[in-house]
Amino acid sequence: MNKTLIVYYSLFQNTKNLALEISEQTGGTIREIIPDKNYSFDYNTAAKEVRNQISRGFCPKLIAGSEPIDDYQTIFIGTPNWFKTLAPPVMSFLRQHDFTGKTVIPFCTHGGGGFCQIENDIARECSKSIILPGIAVNGTAQSEEVRKWLETIGYKL
């Protein structure tokens, strides 16, 4: 059984594309996080919804992606950078699982903001795990960029 899991939430497919690239290079199992209520595809409306959820600490119910993680030792966790933190569906995933003793590797996509608080937020929620340095990609990741990052963090199949 493959012991690596790549979990992600993606609204506009950038984070999904990065997750697929990580999966291709690691051979890991991929799992999409899907909330019970979709965000608006209109950027301004979605931004208002998300800002409100983040300010309230809201964690939406998930209809996919929350399956058990017990069989995995290494878990890549991907999110878009939304208002300097992770997407609320990713926070739901983090709060539904015990990451004790697991290796957690964050990744995000952004439009210029980098990780901001994402790595810190994941580290806080996964305080009993080993956190490796993540990758923050502006737009679409190139396979060479992902390969170099995996080498840098010492990831081995």
Automatic annotation (TrEMBL):
Residues 3-153 form the Flavodoxin-like domain. Pfam families: Flavodoxin_4. InterPro entries: Flavodoxin/NO_synth, Flavoprotein-like_sf. GO terms for molecular function: FMN binding; oxidoreductase activity, acting on NAD(P)H. Gene3D superfamilies: 3.40.50.360. This is Flavodoxin. The lineage of its organism: Bacteria, Bacillati, Bacillota, Clostridia, Eubacteriales.
